[in-house]
Specification:
binds zinc ion; alpha/beta; 7-stranded mixed sheet
Length: 244
């Protein structure tokens, strides 16, 4: 199984970069976790959009969903050109699915996620866990046929639920929105020390930090995570690829 981090900023993208978007590939299966601002342009550096099998959206904040509406147009054009026979499956965790401004059901097959779901896409199985955030938001676990596991946190405040959900996984891709001194300042997001505690208690093999703040020295985030978690820590960046 291969993870590629495509977009990694919180809130808004820096020039020529993107907010949350992660490509996961295994055998001939390709799925995307979140499709934030700037993601659709950057994603095409790593996969043909027409090759995607499914998209999972953790919640409907713009930095996680914005480019899904352009992906809808991309799939519409592919249908019109005869390059695609079916709409692309898109799973969204929200309680307001009907209010989202999708227009073309022939382009995207929009489906509501529930945390109790287990969704099989080709060789990949995806399960979910409820987060602490100001709107419904879930974390996601991707497992392949040979048992490799990846958990993506989405956006969340500190929660034991995530620790249980991520127990022993190969890679924990986790939001690190705040510096340690900011802990508790913005509800529904993790400070670096909380990331370290979650990773340590879940005993994960490798932590990938993402969803970065637009201020301060990002190097400090890793140092603060390191105070609590002693195994491998990596920064997400565009095009970072990790083979599990
Ligand atoms: Zn976010
Ligand atoms: Zn959010």
């Amino acid at each position: 199984m291969k993870l590629t981090t495509v977009g990694f900023w919180g809130a808004f993208p820096r020039a020529n970069e993107a907010t949350s978007c992660y490509l996961v590939q295994d055998e001939d299966t390709r799925i995307v976790l979140d499709c934030g601002s700037g993601a659709l342009s950057r994603l095409q550096n790593y996969v043909q959009l027409n090759e995607l099998d499914a998209v999972f959206i953790s919640h409907t904040h713009a930095d996680h969903i914005a480019d899904i509406y352009c992906l809808e147009y991309a799939m519409l054009v592919q249908r019109q050109l005869g390059n695609r026979k079916t709409p692309l499956d898109v799973y969204i965790y929200t309680d307001e699915l009907r209010t989202l401004p999708f227009t073309f059901p022939e382009a995207l097959n929009i489906q509501q996620l529930h945390v109790t779901d287990r969704i099989q896409v080709g060789s990949l199985s995806v399960t979910f866990s409820e987060n602490v955030h100001d709107i419904p938001c879930c974390s996601m676990k991707v497992t392949n046929r040979t048992g490799q596991t990846l958990v993506y946190s989405g956006d969340t405040g500190y929660t034991d639920t995530l620790i249980q959900f991520a127990k022993g996984v190969d890679v924990l891709l986790i939001e690190c929105s705040l510096y340690m001194k900011q802990q508790g300042l913005i509800k529904g997001h993790l400070a670096s020390n909380e990331v370290g505690k979650i990773a340590q208690q879940a005993n994960v093999k490798h932590v990938v930090l993402t969803h970065f703040p637009h201020y301060g020295h990002l190097n400090r985030l890793r140092e603060e995570v390191r105070l609590f978690y002693k195994k491998k820590i990596t920064y997400a960046k565009e095009g970072l690829t990790i083979t599990l």
